[in-house]
Amino acid sequence: MQNIPLYDETGFDGMRKAGHLAAKVLAYIEPFVIEGVMTETLDAKCHAFILDHGAIPAPLGYKGFPKSICTSINHVVCHGIPGPQKLCKGDILNIDVTVIVEGWYGDSSRMFWIPPIAPATKRLIDVTHEALFRGISEVKPGNYLGDIGWAIQSYVEAEGFSVVRDFCGHGLGRVFHGAPEVLHFGRPKTGIPLKKGMFFTIEPMVNMGAYPIKILADNWTAVTRDRRLSAQFEHSLGVTETGVEIFTQWLS
Ligand code: MF3
Ligand code: CO
Ligand code: CO
Fold this sequence. Notes:
By secondary structure, this protein is an alpha+beta fold. It is 27% helix and 25% strand. Strand 7 and strand 8 form a beta hairpin. Helix 1 crosses helix 2 and helix 3 packs antiparallel against helix 4. The longest helix is centred in the N-terminal third of the chain and has 21 residues. The radius of gyration is 17 Å and the shape is globular. The model has no long low-confidence stretch (mean pLDDT 98). The site of one cobalt (II) ion has 5 residues, from loops.
């Protein structure tokens, strides 16, 4: 059985600050996500912005990850490593930011794209966004982790897309990745009951084709096996008395 910490008001305050900065980083970087920019340039800008705000980019050096953000383009599911690759017309991109503020972790990601993109591609992005919020709307004391997974899976599959199985949301707070594991698939009224003071992420990865993935030789980059597109959105949140507080509410 996983031991899940229950945080108090001090924790909520800490997570509000960390979550807000993660959201600020995503808003800050948006105007730089244009055709021809290298993902390592986006990384360098986010790195500097985070340090300027007195915070630490959690990915840098985490289990050997070499950069400060993850940039996952097109068929990359997650954990893409920023590098010299330049964004092209029609690319879709997830930028995943995690900051440490006074010891608290704020973790959020969203999609960007370089127009024009095909209607089916925009639909993948919209469905993934909606899937995150359908998951979030299940978060309240008395519900179960399985309710979140079911809300996401049933919606995504009805739209003809698939939910990645190999990565999940995670507890966070004064750690980056802790209990509980938050699966983006499941059955209603199963799994761990949600309690006030639990902090975790919901971060569904949705594939246009099939859900299997593989990890590239860099030991980080996860890609769809069928090389079709994948999208992801992520928020960090806390369970409140009556529902949920989103710590990473996007600003733009
Ligand atoms: N931010 C990612 C998550 O949502 C984790 C990235 S780990 C890294 O959990 F090492 F790749 F940065
Ligand atoms: Co996360
Ligand atoms: Co993340």
